[in-house]
Structure formats: C-alpha cells, structure tokens
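Hello support,

Our group uses your service weekly, and this is the first time we've seen a run hang past the timeout. The protein is NAD(P)-dependent oxidoreductase. I'm not sure whether the cause is the sequence or the server load. Input pasted verbatim:
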Amino acid sequence: MSELNGRRVLVTGAAGRIGLGTVAHLNAVGAKVTALTNVGNPELEADRVLLGDTRSEADVARALEDVEYVVHLAALPHPGAGTPYDVYSVNVVSTFNVLAQAGALGIDRAVIASSINATGVPFNPHEIRPAYFPWDEKAPSDVGDWYSLSKQNDENTARMAWRRWGIDVVAFRFPHVNAPDVLRQMSDHVRDKPDTNMREAWSYLDTRDAAYAIELGLTAPLCGAHTFFVTASTTLAPYATEELLDAYMPEIPRLRRFVGREVPIDLTAVRSVLGFQARHELDLPTLPLEH
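Update from on-call engineer: The timeout came from a worker crash unrelated to the input. Re-ran successfully.
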C-alpha cells in the first residue's frame, strides 16, 4: 500500500498533460487529491477540483487547506506559450507562491516540475550542446531564453524554500513527456531525421512514468532540495547511441561508453535516491545509422 493512501495531495496544473496522469495515478494509490487548475477539463477527476490561478495568494491558500503533500506542475510550458514576460512571470511567481505558502504552513514535502531546459541547451538560440556525456545534474548551464530561465529559477526557489521553511522539495528535470502513441510518432520522425531531439539527448518519458516518479518524489526518505534528471533509460531513436554521438556530436567528451540505445543522460541520482526506473519504454529495433 502506498504511503499516500488516505493522504491529501494538492496537484497544481492538474488539467495539463502530466497533471492529468498524476491525478489519475494518485487516485489509484488511494490519495485524496485536491486539483487546482485554471481551465476546466472533463477528464479531470479528483476528490476536490478548484478553479484558480497559482499566482493568486488567495487561490493557493484555499487549495492548500488540509493538504499534506504538494505537486506543483502549473506553468506555461515553452517559450512560445505567451509573451516572454508572461512565460517568465507566470512560472516563477507561481512556484514561489506555492512553495512559500506550503513551507509556511509546515507542509513537509513538495514535488515541482522543472525541465531539461533548466540547462538552457534545447531552446538556446546558439548552437550549443551538453558539456559532456552522460549529461548530469552538475553540468554547466547556458540559458538563452526566458522559459529555461524560469525553470532554472524554480530550482533556486526550491532551495530557498527548504532553507527558509524546511520543506523538502524534489525538482524533476523532465524531458519531453507524452502518451505512448505520440512518443511512437516522435520516434518515427527521429528515424527519418536523426538530428531531431539531439539537444535533449534523444530523451523522453511516458506520462505514466512521470506520474510514478512524482509518487516516489513525494514518498522517498530524503531531506533537502534535490534536482533530478528523470527519463526513460533508452532513447527515442532506433539507432545505437554511440553511432548517434559519433555522427552528430563527436566533439563532445564522453566519460564512458553507452550500450545499445542507452540514453546518454546519467540517471544514477534518480535511481539511487528515489529508486526510479521507467516502466513504459518504447520497444524499438536498433537500425544501422546512415547519414
């Protein structure tokens, strides 16, 4: 039985792609979910559904009533989701508001959605690449867009909230997260154009695995503010990872070799601290790479 059985969990951004999957998963393990969303969605089923804005102190205070755990997913999800001002301000104010109020109330644990974009690599206007492979949480960042900056600052807010109020926070650097059929379509595109998704190291995550990781983030025995890459252990590409790196990023140092379609992202931290292992991965052949 999950530690969340019978416990009240707030999920912000509950009508979004990861939000819907997370609410369904938390329902399945017996949690009492308060869902906060700024848009209605007939697919959203929760013990409490509240319409509100995560930037509003009053809306968040109402949503936090009787809550024991927080999952903060509400955000504008890419640089083009609004004006630069809107994307940045919505994301950072929402995260600060939710974590500050949760911390002040004495809530012990929160999980927030950061992004692989906190590194600044995927959306960067310059032709940059990860500093080395396997890419890990200690790699330097190079931010050139407002969305990535917002996610980097969300991680800073998590560290501040822990230091100020003692609330333990897990920030997940999600890659592209989607349903299996969409991920399969993306893989077909990468098969034809292997350089697609290169700046995300060909990483991906099934929505169900994102929800599972969030459960682990809420229940794992840890303290402090932690940031984790969380991806499938394999890539979207039906090609050997070593061949992809040889063809498209030969200049990037490799600290070790990669087996088969192994994702070139270091998952040691999320595996050792949270015990996470993706359970829904694409079953792809390993084809010869022609370029």
